[in-house]
Write a structure and sequence with these properties.
Distance between the termini: 53 Å
Radius of gyration: 19 Å
Number of domains: 1
Shape: rod-shaped
Strand content: under 5%
Largest sheet: none
Number of helices: 2
Length: 53
Amino acid sequence: MYGWWWRVLPGPWWVRLLLSLLVVAAVVALCFTVVFPAVADRLAINDGTVDGR
């Protein structure tokens, strides 16, 4: 898959690297702004299992 991605991108290696980093940054930003908030209600992250006695 990574070989395919590298062949599809245009330009010399430094342009390909820059484009790849931009795509990774966009995916991370999308996850933090859309995906994670959407699934946060379904996750029991703050529910403790230890009794407070």
